[in-house]
Write a structure and sequence with these properties.
about 130 residues, 1 helix, single chain, 5 strands, 5-stranded mixed beta sheet, extended, about 10% helix, Ubiquitin-like (UB roll), mainly beta
Length: about 130
Amino acid sequence: MSATPATDFLRSIGEYPMRQQDLEDRFYGKRLIYVSWENHLMYAAPFCLPLPPTLPFGALVRDVLPELYGEHPEFEAIDWQRTQWFNGGKRFLPDFGKSIEHHGLVHKSLIRLRTPKLEGSRETDSQGRQKF
């Protein structure tokens, strides 16, 4: 017995064009940029931010990230000079005076930040419970 291709079960009354509804041109000059702080599971998923491509990377760190992560007990201890930055899976060294566009961050890019010595959910307290 041979398998029937799934397309044999689909019927259409006409052409159905697929249109992406989240293209960059629909966000009034902004790009959706995802931001994730590794190992800090107090935040279940990356934040999705509509940011102008001209935003300096330093403004992202100075003005935007504190609004997202400022409540985390480890946030104030971040050493921004030692923070490791990733655009998706590729590591990069940011220039805080240059734009997010300059750093190759396109629409729907994922910025991951890793903070050495701040382990977030990997740390446990003296009784073995997970710390944040």
